[in-house]
């Protein structure tokens, strides 16, 4: 199965289907996200501050990685036109500037009559789960 899925009709979606996306989080990403979100917490932006934190170095905003789920839903599975209905999140480990995050979505339930799909969502760094949860997506 291709990782670049798009516009899959709900009748063709099956439990267990997956899609993934990986990206390395850069200093530029963190600074841009701080500007967009308004979250200028020094644990994200100030190396000296972060060295004295529990993390010992700067961490990326968790929501940067979470946004990769949206990219997957809108461009790969199910594709264009779908809309987020809900998302639960568990932040399990920090994500550091320079980490490569792999986001994965997996179909765990399909509600054809409601045109809704339930996904397991996970982000990993070096094969360790850093974020997990579930998302509901409406299909057009």
Automatic annotation (TrEMBL):
Keyword Lyase belongs to the record: yes
GO terms of biological process kind: fatty acid biosynthetic process
UniProt KW Lyase keyword: yes
The organism's place on the tree of life at top rank: Bacteria
Pfam families: MaoC_dehydratas
Top enzyme class: lyase
Domain MaoC-like: residue ranges: 17-124
MF (Gene Ontology): (3R)-hydroxyacyl-[acyl-carrier-protein] dehydratase activity; 3-hydroxyacyl-CoA dehydratase activity
Keywords: Lyase
E.C. numbers: 4.2.1.119
UniProt protein name: (R)-specific enoyl-CoA hydratase
